[in-house]
């Protein structure tokens, strides 16, 4: 299955062809609490793997969202500007953050799969 | 000691409960040899009466502004503050509370902050204001940093009419933060060519109106020029009462308005504490420094207020915060907002008109003094005069006649060729007899100046 | 990316009020609308004479549009602000154990002294011959601060603690520039337990912030700190006593290590109140430390300021202190206001600092004297340890049985499985009439509760406070969650919707839209 991969910083990536959809995991939104603001990058910007790509804020916390892969930003979820609550309601669906045109798909393959991520989350608390 | 409730017996009982042999057992973590075993060589405690006598004697060695004809301004102004203001700010619940971290039991503070923000936004003609900065000068330095964040450029241009101490505060911070600052030459007559300094490399222009020499500046063309180059206009004021009579900086196109709020509600107090006012456009609110109070509802649906957008601030964002500011000027902004409420629109406008009228009358009277001339074409309540001879000598001779006649420009700008200039402020406290005393003293002081 | 503990920021469910009244008031608890809702533009509470001339010199810059400010008469204004005041907790009414903030008694003598015309009504730019008493007071306070800290110089102008941090780091940066090392010394070490102002200040000046972990006892991890200290380090910023309320046991060794590597030791002096007269920071190797006059020397907190943050400096940093500073010229004192001819790094603020706070702090120091200052520190530490000892069997301490300094720290391990969080516990304290302790800070302790009783509390006050917290703790352990999760029930407001406030910020009052416009 191509499916979906995860990072230790609690971002997820879904790959369709060479376009990766990126957001934060359900665990991440639970930990942050009510999301009140999302800052998204400009379309056309190039980001390197591990660099700051977006910022997500709850009332008492601000967290950077790091690019799980290198690539060029081809789309951002503008709906989050008016309705950041979508991140809480549907993080893996309507609550996506941005889409990247990926340079190197091997970066995707190196990320955690769902079972690995769930094991990782279980070690945290 | 009158401030310590514990008795010797209490202390012994408490140590026993804790299981400590003596008080120094609780200081056991202090490294070897670093714990003091004797009191420091300071005098022992004193009664209220003794302290009051010592401090009253020190205070008596100063000349209070209320006790003489007083024309000193340049960033701090002598105004009459209604008695109700100082009475109200000394209410225990205002004076001895802290930052409203628990909003359910701090609605008093939060509601006045919300009202303060609304008043400041209205006065400056801007969309949003924060809950105060330390003072106008530190607020100006913060405004420059904010402009750098927004424009992603790191060069500021400071007008030659900006208060020299404000400029120095901006330069100090900018130099330390490795940012560039261009300061235009001292501009006594408001003739500088600001438009020539605006290009696509600068993040902002910082311009004061009324400027430090008292001139009024029309910001509209400068704002347009800044915006055409992707830069911001930061408008500064040091006399908040002027906003009651003058076109607001917001109406002239400013992007950030910052100023000193001392004039409204706050004592001169030898330079502090004061209150910095800070306002901007709604689109820049997330780049603002300082605290913000916002409206919301409680669990029963009742209106209430909370600190909000705190993720900009140091306690959450740490090294990525918009500023390092924490404690600001709470009680001074309460004094500001109470005085502002008492004045209202009608009172503020009338007070501003009285300030202006007094200054106009003084300027007219100075025109008849042979050894002095008023340089300003326009002013609000402060203007610059050129005197025959050294301004410091003239002021000293006026002081001998019991008149504190202003600030010599060379105190703010040494080595700038302004040794013959005095900056003179006139407020509502300068009545007919004070102005007459000023003119007499000036005439006497300048006639002997050869 | 997750570096904060989530907690509820909006009420769990909407509640209805226990007792409705026609006015919305509850007995003596009086509501008041916003001033904009009760004011009228033509009313004023200040009588101002008509201007003596109508001539103007305003050019074309006179305002033509109304500002939009309401006015009220004096009795209405008094009533408005008195009503608002009664919605606030305050030290004058009860213990206010907000850890790290030092909410101690504010002597009223100090208020009276600051308002003497010779202090409150003097202008910063008056001729210096007319303010010799004011300069003498600043000079005397400065000498006292040096005496209490055993340092070489003090910069008086910083306006608050964070402004003092900025001053201290600028002095350090200037020293490094003078040594020609500004390109290589670019790192500031900050413990992960530090106040947020520390990393924010360092970042403001372009330094790279590196975090130093703590150890299992609540101190900075000595070996980790030593491993990070090198020729690239400009300074370490250490709070002592630290934010966990503990005296840093290895502080002298850390100071030595950073000095040996050519760096400086900045001490965050927010907690100096625990050790005044007991330990002198200069004896520990400190190069710069700000002193929060509003904490240690009890100038009123005023709902969030004004503070004052003078910075004491070691001999190595003293030459770089900001202007203005005071020098003695024969019998007179004189302000040096410009950097020409000095090594000063520049200027922090327009004038000379927080004079109003200086007067209060000096009155506090004179009143206490050497014996009283020492007693204040000892009583602050004694009171905190008493609270700690009385709660230790019920609430968990993150660093075990170790004497604390002026504040006692608990975590939320003891609440596990109760369904009650630190936030809920704090809100239940409000119903009992207490301002909660500092919560969720320091960040390194899960569900932190930081209690600072200060020396101003009597034993009877502490005993009732401790008994209340014990009652609440046992209630939580018995599973009486309704006492907590809906709390506060009895405050002027129930829990507020912070999420809503942040999602759709309303930061000022706006006039209601007339119905006919809204309908279009």
Structural class call of chain B reads: alpha/beta
Q: What's the Cα radius of gyration of chain B?
A: 25 Å
Note the total helix count of chain A.
5
CATH superfamily of chain A: RNA polymerase II/Efflux pump adaptor protein, barrel-sandwich hybrid domain
- Largest sheet: spatial strand order of chain A: 1-2-3-9-8-5
- Count of distinct structural domains of chain A: 1
Order of secondary-structure elements of chain A: EEEHEEEEEHHEHH
At the third CATH level, what is the topology name of chain A? Answer: OB fold (Dihydrolipoamide Acetyltransferase, E2P)
Spatial order of the strands forming the largest sheet of chain B: 1-7-6-5-4-2-3
Q: What is the CATH top level name of the largest domain in chain B? A: Alpha Beta
Number of strands of chain A: 9
| Fraction in beta strands of chain B | 5-15%
Provide the CATH top-level class of chain A: Mainly Beta
Mean pLDDT reading of chain B: 96
Note the total helix count of chain B.
13
CATH architecture of chain A: Beta Barrel
CATH superfamily of the largest domain in chain B, by name, is Type I PLP-dependent aspartate aminotransferase-like (Major domain)
Jot down its keywords:
heterotrimer; B: about 450 residues; Aspartate Aminotransferase, domain 1; Aspartate Aminotransferase, domain 2; 2 domains; seven-stranded mixed beta sheet; C: about 525 residues; three-stranded antiparallel beta sheet; 12 strands; about 35% helix
